[in-house]
Fold this sequence. Notes:
The chain is an alpha+beta fold. The chain has helices spanning 2-32, 34-59, 126-133, 232-238, 245-250, and strands spanning 64-68, 74-84, 87-102, 108-117, 136-138, 149-152, 155-158, 176-177, 182-195, 202-203, 206-215, 220-228. Strands 4, 5, 8, 10, 11 and 12 form a 6-stranded antiparallel sheet that branches. Strands 1, 2, 3 and 9 form a 4-stranded antiparallel sheet that branches. The longest helix is centred in the N-terminal third of the chain and has 31 residues, at 2-32. 25% of the residues are buried.
Amino acid sequence: xxxxxxxxxxxxxxxxxxxxxxxxxxxxxxxxxxxxxxxxxxxxxxxxxxxxxxxxxxxxxxxxxxxxxxxxxxxxxxxxxxxxxxxxxxxxxxxxxxxxxxxxxxxxxxxxxxxxxxxxxxxxxxxxxxxxxxxxxxxxxxxxxxxxxxxxxxxxxxxxxxxxxxxxxxxxxxxxxxxxxxxxxxxxxxxxxxxxxxxxxxxxxxxxxxxxxxxxxxxxxxxxxxxxxxxxxxxxxxxxxxxxxxxxxxxxxxxxxxxxxxx
Length: 263
């Protein structure tokens, strides 16, 4: 046992004797190259700070939670009373009363809102593949000619627009959301005059839509919803000028209300 301890002590002594010159050499090298060491530490600090900021920026991003609110949230397809190549034409309007909450870790603004849906086309054609399997998108909102509203007893409830200025309410639109903030409002879309199955595919008394919000950073926030399909008469209970924007822009005759597109 004593012999093993002596051997171990001798090994440590030999290791220390061999290490001392190396440490001295390292100290001399550091003393002779202090400028290089300082510069190296400077660049390492910069790179570490940049990486830390980059990871922090990746973690901090907005996230929008989107839900529809009961009221002026529906799709309506109605005949125009005109024909195209002997086909009756129709027009579709979509109103969405939205609640949007920023549940992310950075503020953002709402730059654009788009809505998509499947057309009610029969298989099989290129249009069927593109708009029945895929989505038909309305990428631009339509200016509503009147405010969305409903009568409650002797009072009238005015629904705020999300991006359009109301003609009846003095409230401003709010599309910039800090962390945890929410905003409500109606968005409105009209599809150009179409014919055949170029309208939202019904699912009973509802239709499926895909909503896309593009924020100020160009990020997309998508959500899917099932919304009611209603008659033009019911749609006009919420907005007496529903479905008339393209009519006014194109100076057409008002849409016929005699019959609705069958679901």
